[in-house]
Amino acid sequence: MLFVKNFKRFLVKKNSMAKTLSQNYSYANNSNGELINVATAQCNEDYFCPICGEAMTPHMGKVRRWHFVHKNTGNCSYESYLHKLAKIKIRQAFLSSEHFLLSYNAKAICSFNCPFIFSPKCEGEKPVEFDLRKFYDTCEIEANFHQYRADLLLTSSTNPKVPPTLIEIRVTHKCTEDKISDGVRIIEIPIQSEEHIDNVVNNCKLIATRDSQVSYSSSNERRITLYNFNKVESFDPIGRFDEYGDCFNRKNTIVFWLNNQGQFCSFDCHCYEVSKKLPPNVHYYITDIATPFKEILQEFSKRGVKIRNCFLCRFCKQDSWGDRLCVLYKKHDLPRKPSPYSAVSCPHYREDFGLSQNMIQAEQSLSENEADYSLHKYYYHICKDIL
Q1: CA-CA distance, 157 to 172, in Å (whole number)?
Q2: Distance between CA atoms of residues 358 and 381, nearest Å
């Protein structure tokens, strides 16, 4: 049953492809071998198919779209016609245009030297646009490169050190793996009709997607695909996260601070915003993963910070709902869920000095050298002014 369904899908796709490729020919060669559009054809001239070489006749009626037709029914391939026409037309457009643009989302690495977040740095995508005409002034059809033959080969006659770029026309077959694995930059342009060729030629702009971003589904079959475009751009995060929010994912930067009254606060922010959001003269802890308050307060206490806080009290437990409560509330008529700062005046406060199993040796100050931890990076800063 599954085989029958898959076979039906194959037939539908094949019929759809055949319908797409069964268009009329708008171009033919004249007797001088020049490619002529039917709009400029003359009835008394001889025209020939650019693929099979057979004679063609221009049909320029009042009802149907003008087109060339083979005089004799033959075995000419419309796929080959589109493939050759695309190479000729795109080459002409490239060489005759002042600009030929390529835009895509390049890989981007954050340029901010963040001391808080574990490497590698935050990365994402950055929209970039290049004018290919600034790098290349030659465009050859069916040119050899290494052991391959490129549909179109872009090179620079003035700067031979500029690596070439291949333009591959995909009518039905995708770029071969051996070309891709060679490492040369490839622009693969899908062509299914003369209109697709006209769009490229008229706009002289390619909006493409890098191959690592492409999901090869039916919805992506018409996307221009880039191979081996691996240049990494730098990304300035300050003021730009909102602008490129859809394509740049940052890591968490979680900040915990404690003042000399024992009050504490925790917030999440961009790493470059930490210094602006911290109040003066506080102890602080910075990490990229969530950490229980008790563990943070324990570590501050071990570093000589005088803290009385219910989170540190051995009589502070969690109920079945995960809420913090005082287990002495019935015995001594205390609040069941006291404020964490109630410990300052509580006569029953006993600090829990149990070692945390989840903590590792941490930095003592932001001024010390960074350490490469296997789990995560975090910093403790002890403010000597309020010890």
Answers
A1: 32
A2: 19
List, as own/partner pairs, every contact residues 140-149 make where C-beta atoms lie below 8 angstroms and the sequence separation is at least 24, other chains included.
Answer: 140/91, 141/87, 141/88, 141/91, 142/87, 145/184, 146/182, 146/184, 148/178, 148/179, 148/182
| ω into 120 cis (within 30 of 0) | yes
Nearest residue to 114 via CA among 359, 287, 257, 232: 287
pLDDT digits (tens, 9 = 90+) for 167-214: 999 998 889 898 999 999 999 999 999 999 999 999 999 999 998 765
Q: d(Cα 326, Cα 308) in Å, to the nearest integer?
A: 15
Interatomic CA distance for residues 233 and 216, integer angstroms: 25
Q: Which two tokens stand for residue 91?
A: 């080459």
The pTM is what?
Answer: 0.68
Token duo for residue 62: 């009042």
C-alpha dist (Å) from residue 338 to 164, 236, 242, 292: 71, 45, 40, 18
Three-state SS at 330: coil
- Between CA 41 and CA 50, with CA 45 as vertex, the angle to 5 degrees is 70
pLDDT at 56 over 80: yes
pLDDT surpassing 50 at residue 7: no
Residue type, 73: T
| Weakest-pLDDT range from 152-161, 211-220, 360-369 | 360-369
Residues 175 and 224: beta-carbon distance below 8 Å: no
CA–CA gap between residue 153 and residue 190 (Å, rounded): 17
CB distance 238 to 102 below 8 Å: no
CA distance 343 to 350: 9
Residues 146 and 125: beta-carbon distance below 8 Å: no
State the CB neighbour count (10 A cutoff) for residue 83. Answer: 18
For residue 174 the two structure tokens come to: 């995708």
Tokens of residue 286, six digits:
């910075």
Q: What is the mean pLDDT of the chain?
A: 82
Residues across the chain: 387
Single out the residue of 39, 83, 259 nearest to residue 171, CA to CA: 83
Q: Tokens at residue 250, please?
A: 């940052």
CA distance 182 to 35: 34
